[in-house]
Design a protein that fits this description.
By secondary structure, the protein is of the alpha+beta class. Helices cover 47% and strands 20% of the residues. It has helices at 11-21, 26-31, 35-56, 82-88, 93-96, 99-119, 141-156, 169-175; strands spanning 4-5, 58-61, 68-73, 125-132, 160-164, 179-185, 192-198. Helix 3 (35-56) crosses helix 4. The protein is globular and about 40 Å long.
Length: 199
């Protein structure tokens, strides 16, 4: 399998695949506790994240039926600014997610921001999202989706950075050469969060 840049026409089906990928993710479950509401609201949430990747980074998918994606921000654009967030539609989260869910999501991610800036202060690649739909997990797609970014980072001698709230992802990322930088417990949600760096 070889990852390629996501065609713009596939944004919605890819967002739906990411919604399935993260349906049982601890962070997504925390921000949208009701399963039916989570299934209904998550696609629009991931559509805005995919749009951000299209505008300011890269979105990689595997050709064929939509099964997931990697959203990656480059060394000169990893910092998510308010202006860029608005351009991608992040300001619509109180409507698409609901005000409580949007507030929970932003506040949880803000817990990790100081660790991100502390542990990778220089130029680096930021894997903003990596997700594979349940029906396609265990087929090598996650590794394939990361390959273009890992290859570019290696060629440039630059690190990669990412975060997860899913315990089962820790071993997966370590197998790909990432090391845990911080394991954090969000004091509000109680969620365990991990940050990773691959040199």
């Amino acid at each position: 399998m070889t990852a390629t840049t996501m065609p713009a026409s596939e944004l919605d089906v890819t967002a739906a695949a990411l919604a399935r990928a993260f349906h049982h993710d601890p962070l997504q479950t925390y921000i949208l506790p009701d399963s039916q509401e989570r299934a209904a609201r998550s696609p629009a949430h991931f559509a805005s994240i995919l749009r951000y990747g299209q505008l300011f980074g890269d979105v990689f998918t595997i050709p064929g039926p939509a099964s997931g994606a990697a959203v990656v921000l480059p060394p000169d654009g990893w910092d998510i600014t308010p202006e860029r967030a608005e351009a991608a539609g992040f300001d619509e989260w109180p409507t698409t997610l609901g005000e409580v869910a949007a507030d929970r999501f932003v506040k949880t991610l803000s817990v990790l921001e100081p660790y991100h800036r502390r542990d990778v202060p220089g130029a680096h690649w930021y894997v903003l999202v990596l997700g594979v739909a349940p029906e396609a997990q265990g087929t090598g797609r996650g590794r394939a989706l990361l390959q273009p970014t890992l290859a570019r980072a290696t060629a440039a001698g630059q690190p990669c950075y990412l975060e997860t709230a899913q315990p089962k992802n820790v071993g997966f990322y370590e197998h790909l050469g990432f090391r845990v930088l911080a394991e954090v417990v969000d004091p509000t949600s109680g969620l365990r969060l991990w940050t990773f760096r691959r040199d």
